[in-house]
Specification:
The protein has one domain. The protein is 17% helix and 20% strand.
């Protein structure tokens, strides 16, 4: 049995493109799985917490394309 449930986002997420060759600081979280899949890479996005701009994370190109659209 899984504790995961389906949730729908009700807000916006601030994002910007990852720039190839950009050195990401420790403030940008990249999951182990994304690193193993070659991220950061062209087409990935950097998201940030609206209330704390130092809280940033990488969103893979594939996940971004499947789940986000420009507001």
């Amino acid at each position: 049995m899984s504790d995961f449930e389906l949730y729908k986002k009700i807000n916006y997420t601030e994002m910007r493109p990852y720039i190839v060759g950009e050195v990401l600081s420790d403030s940008v979280s990249i999951s182990k799985e994304d690193r193993e899949n070659g991220s950061p890479k062209d087409g990935d996005m950097i998201a940030r917490n609206y209330w704390n701009h130092l809280d940033q994370w990488l969103v893979s190109k594939e996940f971004f394309e499947d789940n986000y659209t420009l507001a």
